[in-house]
Sequence to fold (682 residues):
Amino acid sequence: MRKILFEGLLRHRFTERPAPVGAAPLAELAANVDRVARRRLGRSLSIRQVDAGSCNGCELEIHALNNVFYDLERFGLRFVASPRHADVLLVTGPVTKNMREALEQTYNATPNPKWVIAVGDCAVDGGLFADSYAVSGGVSATVPVDLHIRGCPPSPVQLLEGLLALLQSEETKNRA
Amino acid sequence: MASPHKTLVEGRHVKAQRPWPRVIVTSKNWNYASQELAEGRLILLGLWGDADAVHMALLNEEPFDIAVVTFEITDGTFPSVAAFHPPAIRLERTIRDLFGLEPVGLTDQRPWLDHGRWGLGHPLGSPTPARSGLEPYPFLPSEGGGFHQIPVGPVHAGIIEPGHFRFTANGETVVRLEQRLGYAHKGVESLMLGKDVNRVARLAGRISGDSTVAYATAFAHAVEAALTVKVPPRATWLRALMAELERLANHFGDFGAICNDASFSIMHAQCGMLRERILRAAAASFGHRLMMDCIVPGGVVADLSPDGAVQVRNLLTEIRDLFPKLVDLYDNTASLQDRTVTTGILTAALARQFGAGGYVGRASGRSFDARRAIAYPPYDKLKFDIPVLEEGDVNARVWIRIREIEQSLAMVEQILDQLPAGPIRVDIDPSSTAGTREGLGLVEGFRGDVLVWVRLDGAGAIARCHLRDPSWFQWPLLEAVIEGNIVADFPLCNKSFNCSYSGHDL
Fold:
């Protein structure tokens, strides 16, 4: 094990520079994120991921945010185990009717101020599953959504872009 | 057994199904099949409902044969298979929930996927008003003193799919685990009805995101069998390349995550790096990191790009350099071995009874692998071994993954070396004057064998499609292996199974 750790010290870093944040997520956020709340939280956000019925594709890419290439925690963003510790709910999937109440309870258990990011095409409007008897639609049909990150599934770069937008939105708002 | 099984041939043959026969049987022969399952002479591959029938896919392992037997419903009931053969219990509860067909003899009267929230009952049969109110779900009792219950989920602590686990524990020791699933039920099979093949292929690729290649291939096999379409050789080789990349990505993810659940995060970091490399090579090769929508009935959509081929070769070099060191690290870390060895033992008898596929079955002595048994192209031309172990513990399930990674690396190399030239797709015309046609596909995903059964109507639309995830026969075994283990070892057991929620809930 010592050898592997040592190699890790000598080798070049895998971690990559993030792409600049695009205009679209910033515009959506500027309208949604309150300035006072941003000041209170600083540059640190705790994220609680909720799978409200996805196919697991989005979860795989959210997992990838923690790998050495994207290293989410360097931005002050980290995943937490309880909604009571969270600032942000990262919700995936078309919200199934069987998960709707659990999502509501998770939202209500998250302290204010809080934001909801809907991840993936299904989370926007139900996607391919929208017409089903078992699906209640996108995330915004159940809880208020501050930011949508599209994609099927969105790549870790797209996810990172959306999450960083959440941190940078205040700056943009001041400039506007 | 010398000849194909008796129930596999007796009865009215349905001409339209390919490549394996479907036979309509009497209740006597239906029960006979159930008894043969109970005796262990046949393996249950699937059990699903239809408008006026129930179908059961059966596997005869030696000599290899598959058949679907059908019981036609006349009075809304069918003889329960689960009454003889417990692996069918959840499948029959699902048939009752979705179709309203009553399995006579099934003792478990609780619903399974239907949580009373759909606003209707029996969505695939004759829809009825929803069950009145939200009745509490009665979990099975545990008798004795000093027990406490630990409810977990449906929202879990990590980045995990939704499901509920109800533990009954005596101190640290788990006395009983009962799962309640269905939270991710999206009504996929109902969404497929009447849709065209291409749209349904997209849905099939989203049954379980980690197995999108396996599902898309199984669906394509089923449709191609129904239409007797011959796929160009290059397409089958590219499908296999995608399938082995998918297997590698998932096995690396699991290997790291199992170690991480024993707080051994260095392995998680190293495996996460390799997994990311695989996904990037997949994106460079086929245009999508998980290779979604790359496989369609008739072939594949994206050809291997020259840059992709180079990246995959580089990937092989990198993995072969690092992976043996990681395996050594796993094998020589006593604190890690302490957590995985003898933890969560699945007996060979249970694995066989449930027909458990993938690493779950192969770590407990069951060697079935659709790539070998059916040898669909190009696996008839590839050289590979199927690793099998007998111990059945978490450690064995890790080692099966390690060995399968080695096999997949070898197969990827063979595919790159031998990839035939030529077209990658043929046009298919699903409409026909011949009326309905049916097909069955069985494909080895990373988790085990994925079954897809499809019926096309004369216009070429989907008249019925059923998709059975390997997890159906693995979830119940997880309940069995955790018994007598400590609560803290559940994450290890669970991750070593890595069952699909979405694939199961549909």
